[in-house]
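Running co-folding for magnesium ion.
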Amino acid sequence: MSDIIKFSVSDLNLFYGNFQALKNINMKIAKEKITAFIGPSGCGKSTFIKTVNRMNDLIEGVRITGEITMDGVDIYKDMDAISLRTRVGMVFQQPNPFPMSIYDNVAYGPRIHGIRKKNVLDEIVEKSLRQAAIWDEVKDKLKKSALAVSGGQQQRICIARTLAIEPEVILMDEPTSALDPISTLKIEDLATELKQFYTIIIVTHNMQQAGRISDKTAFFLNGEVIEYGETEQIFNKPRNKKTEDYITGRFG
Amino acid sequence: MNNNAYKENLISRRKEYPEKVFKGIFLLSALVSVLSVIAIIIFVFSKGLQPFFGEDAYSFLEFITGLKWDPGNDVYGVFYMIVGSLLATLGAIVLGVPIGLLTAVFIAELAPKELVAFIKPAIELLAGIPSVIYGAFGLGVIVPIINEISPTGQGESLLAVICVLTIMVLPTIISLSEASIRAVPKSYREASLGLGASKTQTIFKTVIPAARSGILTATVLGIGRAIGETMAVMMIAGNNIGGLPTSIWSKVRPLTTNIAMEMGYASGRHQDMLFATGVILFLFIMVINITLTKLTGKLGDKGRSK
Ligand SMILES: Nc1ncnc2c1ncn2[C@@H]1O[C@H](COP(=O)(O)OP(=O)(O)OP(=O)(O)O)[C@@H](O)[C@H]1O
Ligand SMILES: [Mg+2]
């Protein structure tokens, strides 16, 4: 079966000032699949994931060369960052709900994009929270502060908040690294559930997690993609010695 | 008894000695301010409440609701001064908070570094200018302008006071708001921008709401500064002897200037009545301080629960 290409990355280089954090990356990311990025700390996974929704634009002194297209459109040349980010949502490593009620958190995106009607917002909030598998836990405290729930719940609220803008793509940068195993499993289930409708890119340090949920895996090292392929193949028959060392835990 | 082992140790004892001395110095230093506050309260209140008790007492109701201040004829009414003080403060806050907040946002979020390096020292300088200079500026620049445009043909006015007080509260409001805006975690901004919000939307929907307790604190401190300001205000208020202000062109006589203008020569009941004016002012400041404590207390709670 052949995948539909969502993103196509060609010859991507990224510099923080003089430091080159991404080196000549070429990659095609499949639509409605889960793609996992693995690799040791500091190898450029977060940097790369942030080029996809142009969050790097916010950092001073960043220079990017090369091209990323989404559905064939260059996201740096032919799209503005704001409309890109409404199509490419992001979930961060640390749960970062706003210091507002749960309801207002989830309604934030829709409100920003001009939805004012109460009944429409109510619907979006409920639908998003249900999709994020958190509705039953918070439906009675929608007006309570989003900071007053557990970290795992906060993270699912953040996922709901991202789903509420109805993106096509969800970027997750180590979304479970701050969570306990049960919350982690919930979010993994959620990701597998969501991939029917969304293209998901997930950064993780957790090999089992990458193995469990992803369709494709890319192994990063020192700003380069060392190996990229079907998750099955990467974990069972890695072609590159460095990949094998890393996933078997023999890495340096 | 159980301290003995430690006390027998000569090295510890040698250390203990300056320890105690320093503790004493700390305590003494702390006492200076506490005792001063107590002394001032006792002094102001005992002098200020005196005219309303005993035989020949002045009616407190007449004092607090009176619209005329005429010591020569034994008439002491401060209601119009209270109104003047409150209106001047309100005006300064209504103008100063938006201007100050937008400036703070500009400095913290938008301005290029070179510009910040220029604006911040300017604001710090503004904070350091003695109030008599503000008064002179008001008298030399603002009052003549109002003179030109006022229907009363009179420059000393509520408007002049509001203008000068607005400038005077700006440094307080700007620096505190800026600090609280800078304290808003980066992750909130990232979350907002990540949802496709523009920079402006992020500022107004995320950053300012998240910084609101600091901004509120800044506002309350600004109120305190405005209501207590004396020197600058005295030079431009007009200091009428009676009558409620009817428009921004009216003369006013804030509570502070009433005291400052007459204390030098007043005696007897006249002097006591100036202290009574001080009591009123004191009550306002106390309300402001209690509000502030409540606010900062809340701020602390929030920090802890995170
Ligand atoms: N804002 C920045 N300015 C300068 N250098 C940066 C910046 N952000 C990241 N880097 C550098 O770029 C490299 C890649 O960082 P990145 O955060 O992408 O790593 P990562 O693979 O996500 O690591 P981790 O697994 O620890 O999150 C690192 O060497 C890092 O020090
Ligand atoms: Mg990272």
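Result summary
Residues A 16, 19, 21, 39, 41-47, 59 surround adenosine-5'-triphosphate (ligand 1) (CB under 6 Å).
The longest strand of chain A covers residues 5-16.
Job closed.
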